[in-house]
Amino acid sequence: MTVIVRDLRPGDRADAEGFAHVRRLAVPYLLMTPESVLYDVEHVPGETFLRLPVAEEDGEIVGTAQVGMEFESTEPGQAFLNVYVHPGRTRRGAGSLLVAAAEAHLAACGARRLLSWVLDAPDNRAFAERHGYRPSRSAHLLRLDLAKADLPPLREPPPGLALCRGSDFADDPRPVFALDAEAMADEPSDVGYAFDDYEAWLAETWHHPLFSHELTTLVVADGRPVAFSAARTDGGTRYGTVMTGTARAFRGRGLAGLAKNDSLHRARAAGCTEAFTGNDTANGPMLAINTRFGYDVCATEVRHVRELG
Questions:
Q1: Residues 6+ apart with CB under 8 A from 285
Q2: In sequence order, which residues have a C-beta less than 8 Å from that of residue 159 and are 6 or more positions away?
Q3: Domains (ranges, CATH) in the chain?
Q4: What digits encode the pLDDT tens for the residues 67-122?
Q5: Does the pTM exceed 0.90?
């Protein structure tokens, strides 16, 4: 049986279903649907040079990769590649072929430094090290049984603050972008980012098919969002918070937890039964918040880095 690597075909529903299926098996705590795969191919910023190569064996997609340049990085030449193979189709060469194709593409785009998330398991880490990648920072993936979770009671925000939904800013989401950019700038990371591209944020976040405006909660002061918990859902029972943060001037008041609790309650009321999130292992405050909600670590990924000559 021969494994080949090719690009995912834009607009091809079967390709998108195969890509999402492999990702669901390999990393079930990361939300992805065929619709989100097709959207990512068609709407990512041109500067990203995004590719979604797949490994195919006898007509079946058995491996996937997300490959592109970190166009928002303050340092030129930063790139990413995240490779996942069907758990029942490993050790057949799919992973190595995907890595080789990704590296060739990124080198042609001017990449100098490659970053890849790798599951913290012996075989996965050994695979990365064989291909010249060294471990860097790590992140926990967390899961909450939302159907059974003993969530804190809903509470009113402090005086002068109000709880809103993302949909309340549908006419002008720029204030949400400003808050997201400020919060992301303080996130632990291997790469320094300049979040200043509003149009790219609209495409990658606000208009993304997984993003839920109704389940995203904002804490608002004088009409301006000062804390938030951004939500995604697969349209079924799976829900995830992809960013929870607070403006610097409002930190230390429990507003991030207030926003997240409101979002979790509304997600459960909407029929979601599983909640997922991720935390850098160095982000102690957010890990503490998620522990109080009852999240458990379901996996850990280690960022691996390879410098190109």
A1: none
A2: none
A3: 3-111 (3.40.630.30), 144-299 (3.40.630.30)
A4: 999 988 889 999 999 999 999 999 999 999 999 999 999 999 999 999 999 999 99
A5: yes
